[in-house]
Amino acid sequence: MELLSVSEMTCADALAVEGGGDSFALMQRAGQAVAAAAQTLAPSGDIVVVAGRGNNGGDGFIAAADLAARGRNVAVTLLCKPETLTGDAARAAKEWRGPLLPFTPESLGRPALIIDALFGAGLDREVKGEPRAMIEAINASGASVLAVDLPSGVNGNSGEAMGVAVNATRTVTFFRKKPGHLLLPGRVHCGETRVADIGIPPRVLDVIHPKTFENIPEWWRGHFPVPGIAGHKYGRGHAVVMSGGMAETGAARLAARAALRAGAGLVTVASPRDALAVNAAALTAVMVREIGTAVDFAAYLEDDRLNACVIGPGAGIGLRTRDMALTALSGPRAVVLDADALTSFADMPQTLFDAIASQPGAQAVLTPHEGEFARLFASLAGRDHALSKLERARLAAQESHAVVLIKGADTVVASPDGRASIAENAPPWLATAGAGDVLSGMIGGMLAQRVPAFEAASIAVWMHGEAARRFGPGLIAEDLADVLPNVFRDLYRRFGVVL
Ligand SMILES: NC(=O)C1=CN([C@@H]2O[C@H](COP(=O)(O)OP(=O)(O)OC[C@H]3O[C@@H](n4cnc5c(N)ncnc54)[C@H](O)[C@@H]3O)[C@@H](O)[C@H]2O)[C@@H](O)CC1
Ligand SMILES: [K+]
């Protein structure tokens, strides 16, 4: 579940070799894993291996030799002259005694399977010229495509397509996935990604200390909140969700209901007077409390059982929301700032960041979508094309001292301490009005249960995606909270919690 950057993967390889391994043996196992995957993907028909000049191509040669030995009809097309290959790739190429075709799109012919071994972790610039024409031909071929390590053209760290990238049916990577397998558009280019064990001992991770994780239950299970048998509702915390004015109360109610479903012991909607009746009429298990001004809010928050606040959904942009957020941040409680609360600080982000930094025990979570991110972190968003979503989230977390969650189909959560998670379970139909309000409420619910901010946000992101996936197309935001009990039930089973 750890994700390794390209340099961390190089380090893992080096540590495995230092620890008595052999780099060519790693390449052999990588090539054999590719050959095994090829057999499953295309049990019959011709195979063409498109090889580059680096070790990715080396893996391709090993796979070609292995598949030929299994009786498959295989040809290799190589980007350079074989005598210019060096190191392990040169050694792998020597094991190949089958046909070597010219590096032209015509050489592809009409195979059942193309093995893409052109570029892997070593891709370091835009793809142009002959490799570009070859990638375009692979994509137009109609054949199944098995990518070795990464679809050629996809940057392993950022998931960006560097000019052009192979559209793979399946990708086989080695030891651990890389961020580029999960971040968009890389994930789409990968097709289905599988990880092969090539004999790198997991203990190398003790030296590397990876800080990027696939957002899956196995990673956060140690922080998943399970109420104890002798528990009290106050033991599960009390979340407060700030409501906007009369015409904008729905978002806060969505968030409040989600906070309760996510497990908060109690949830209160803090409502301005004009919206009190509409909020009260529409809520049952969620409580309502009149809060007009930041002074009222501060007085209310003197009750230290109120341990998590959600401010932003439908809150309105401007001074009132800013004051409410700063009030929430002035004490030892967890705070989720979303939507309008983020935009309210667009002209004065430093005021927000200073307030978070001075918050005792700082457990703040900011949940921008790309537009809100650009308003709050203008300097990072301006360098948009230079920085990946993962890097932007990390830098924003450092700058704001908060956990920063950048939404999308590849939601990234980053902690000021450098850790980050990437989720890939959100279905396309989760992009629907109000889904973000539900997410901020779920994070509030997790925080109320005293889950640390980074894990609270990551757990909520995964459960939110999972709820949407289970409900299926046609989902509206109101449905999400009601699917959560099923998601909880399965997590309890998965974690061996007795129901
Ligand atoms: N390091 C190891 O021990 C292992 C590495 N393995 C394989 O090795 C791969 C990495 O090998 P390399 O570091 O040799 O890198 P690659 O094989 O990905 O590519 C490097 C070569 O491509 C060139 N190149 C990069 N971008 C280009 C572009 N846009 N246009 C044209 N040429 C470009 C570079 O100049 C270099 O010659 C991995 O992806 C994996 O497939 C596996 O064999 C497992 C073990
Ligand atoms: K590749």
From TrEMBL:
InterPro entries: Carbohydrate_kinase_pred_CS, CARKD, Nnr, Ribokinase-like, YjeF_N_dom, YjeF_N_dom_sf. It comes from the Bacteria. AMP binds at K407, G408, A409, D410, T411, G436. Signal peptide: none annotated. Keywords: ATP-binding, Isomerase, Lyase, Metal-binding, Multifunctional enzyme, NAD, NADP, Nucleotide-binding, Potassium. CDD domains: YXKO-related. The keyword Cytoplasm does not apply. Its EC number is 4.2.1.136, 5.1.99.6. K(+) binds at N56, D116, S152. (6S)-NADPHX binds at residues 55-59, 120-126, 149, 251, 314, 369, 437. Its cofactor is Mg(2+); K(+). It catalyses: (6R)-NADHX = (6S)-NADHX; (6S)-NADPHX + ADP = AMP + phosphate + NADPH + H(+); (6S)-NADHX + ADP = AMP + phosphate + NADH + H(+); (6R)-NADPHX = (6S)-NADPHX. It holds the Pfam family Carb_kinase. Residues 9-206 form the YjeF N-terminal domain. The keyword Membrane does not apply. Residues 216-491 form the YjeF C-terminal domain. Binds 1 potassium ion per subunit. Catalyzes the dehydration of the S-form of NAD(P)HX at the expense of ADP, which is converted to AMP. Together with NAD(P)HX epimerase, which catalyzes the epimerization of the S- and R-forms, the enzyme allows the repair of both epimers of NAD(P)HX, a damaged form of NAD(P)H that is a result of enzymatic or heat-dependent hydration. Homotetramer. Belongs to the NnrD/CARKD family. PANTHER family: ATP-DEPENDENT (S)-NAD(P)H-HYDRATE DEHYDRATASE, ATP-DEPENDENT (S)-NAD(P)H-HYDRATE DEHYDRATASE FAMILY MEMBER. NCBIfam families: yjeF_cterm (TIGR00196), yjeF_nterm (TIGR00197). This is Bifunctional NAD(P)H-hydrate repair enzyme. The gene is nnrD.
